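EI: anyone free to look at a 220-residue chain?
SC: sure, send it
EI:
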Amino acid sequence: MWRLAQTPFKRTMRPFLKYWLPVPLWIVVIFIGSSDLMSAEHTSRLLVPLLLWLKPDITGEAIVQVHFLLRKCAHLTEYAILAILLRRALYRGTNLRAKPWVFFMAIWFVCGIFAASDEFHQSFVPSRTASLNDVLIDISGAFGLKFSPGAAVAATVPQSKIRNRKSKIKMGLTGLEPVTLRLSSACSNQLSYRPASNYLRLQIANRKSDVNNVSANSTR
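SC: here you go
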């Protein structure tokens, strides 16, 4: 009884844990990235020694430019991943059906709202600064979802329909088993009949030859 009562709960929790849980976890990662821990001062302590090790004669201006570009690329990447996780959750973790551009606009809107709230959060961190340009970069990273593989799906197929199709295919395969058994038995019967039919043909041929021999002897 406990297993039967626990089954619906497992069915509802499994899609959540598989498709929706990564979304808030990644949001936590983004918020950690907007804290003092990932400020320019802290990231430069890791990046500057690495650049000097790779190229000892690098200039200070080049280090500043590389540091700036890497931080902006991080903005693009983290919101592109967020958009991919949201699309995965909507497509796989729900039974919603809509045109692809509706899902894309909904995901883009959510990413834009979160990017604005993230920059608003940075305005309260002394070592960070809020910037409208960073919001636009974040939205651009989410916009890259439109050009990612699998984004141009004609329509969203609910998971329940996929499961129904799989069950129908399994039922069709199980329904074909008696047919295949009948065909195999019929083929085996035909194969078993062939020696008997050949034996009868030989007997008939022998009988005819005997009759011909008898008639030939009688005519003599």
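EI: Helices lie at 2-20, 22-33, 40-54, 60-92, 100-122, 132-143, 159-219.
SC: 👍
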